[in-house]
Amino acid sequence: MVSWRRCAGAVACVAVLGILAAGPASAGVGPPSAQQAGRSEHTVTHVLLISVDGMHQSDLAWFEANHPNSELARLVRGGREFSNAHTSDPSDSDPGGTALVTGGDPRATGVYYDVEYSHDVFPPGTTHCSGPVPGGNVIYDSPDDTLNAVPDLLNNGSGNTFPSFDEGGSIYPNGVDTNPGAIMNLTPHPQSGLNPATYPVRPTNCQPIMPWDYLKVNTIFQVIHNAGMRTAWSDKHAVYSSFNGPGSHGHSIDDLFAPEIDSQAVEPNGVPYPQDDDWAHIDAATKQYDAYKVQAIINELDGYDHSGRHKVGVPAILGMNFQAVSVAEKVDSPGSITKNADGTYTVGPTELAGYHPGTTTPRPLLAGALQYVDAHAVRRRATSADGRPDPPKRPCVLHGDHHHSQARSVAAESVAAEADRRRAHHQRRQRGLVRAAEPDRHARSDDLLHERAERRHDHTADRGRH
């Protein structure tokens, strides 16, 4: 479901909530017209795009019925719904997120998964590109981090390794995290913490293919950035700098905040979680992780960069994704962490993930994750685009799912409307962007996913899919 509503401070709010696990529905619902969106009320100058990874339509219906006064329920009642949407195929974070910011399915974008195979590249590490192109692995995931094997911070002899929270050691020397809150100081271009030697190699120049140049179509961030407006995005891997789009040199997103979710989860006081796992396998930790991205959004809506230190102006488009719901759907884990009087923390008991058997009723862990997202929606409502409190009747939040294509056209159309007014010659680019939602019927069949490349080990493979 896509929901559109007008918000205070001339911020356009779009909500995307739909079915993830069910089979794809037929496509074809277009974005709302200017009149439907209520453009006459305010000029759209800012769009907030928020993805709730893993949220189903049934989750929304259950939450609205059981929490009629919640922020999500308010959004549903005040929004415009599109239920005739479909997922990307394959449906996963990388192809789904790429679809969200491009309007293209994997055949159009070339992105089928974060670990795929292409017949049109040389393998990573190739330095002499002669003879027939052999094909090779295309891995854009946490193994690309410069510090991708930090020894277990619990020093328990487990032999476990994790990527660094900051990808490359810019904040945590050698990846040793003793203050996770310091991640707010992460560079706005975190791709500097990635290792190009792990990328596939382009046959024409024998150079590594940057993540943004692997895309075959442009992105909404390029359209807006090239129109002279500021852009920002928060996500779970620095390698999602791919959302900058081809030919951007990685700078279409002016402020990219992307702490590595596959890194070892650390409690707020700097002590590793006793579960000895990453941020995507302990729901209490996932909520803590999501909170950093929420703070980045609030700082940006106040006119600062994600760190809250530099006044730069409110981005024309900004957004993030929530991971807590996705984790609570599939990983049995603690859902809470409590601060003690002495400054230590106690992690709650392990709870069952998902739904009560034979129903779409969330178990307490998942229900708590939905409540967490709703609570942060309320927190967002305390800040408007100019830093003043929003009127209570106008929450400015976009909720969505990585895997629901219909939001792509809505977001692209909303942002492009303002871009066209400010720089009319970008109208042609935007129309091309929206058309990318149609399948590329001339895509080469050998661009399809051929095989999954080997992960570093099975546990890392499971972590990377969250």
Verbal overview:
By secondary structure, the protein is α/β, with parallel strands linked by helices. The protein has one domain. It contains 13 helices and 16 strands. A four-stranded mixed beta sheet has the order 1-2-3-12, sandwiched between helices. Strand 1 (2-6) and strand 2 (11-16) form a beta hairpin. Helix 8 runs antiparallel to helix 9, helix 8 runs parallel beside helix 10 (364-381) and helix 11 packs antiparallel against helix 12 (427-435). The protein is globular and about 60 Å long. Mean pLDDT is 78; it is low at 1-40 and 384-466.
Topology (SSEs and partners):
Elements: E1 2-6, E2 11-16, H1 34-37, E3 46-52, H2 57-66, H3 71-78, H4 93-102, H5 106-109, E4 115-118, E5 136-139, E6 150-151, E7 161-162, E8 201-202, E9 207-208, H6 211-214, H7 220-226, E10 232-234, E11 255-257, H8 283-301, E12 317-322, H9 324-330, E13 333-334, E14 337-339, E15 345-347, E16 350-351, H10 364-381, H11 406-422, H12 427-435, H13 458-464
Parallel strand pairs: 2-3, 3-12, 10-11
Antiparallel strand pairs: 1-2, 4-5, 6-7, 8-9, 13-16, 14-15
Helix pairs in contact: 4-11, 8-9, 8-10, 9-10, 11-12
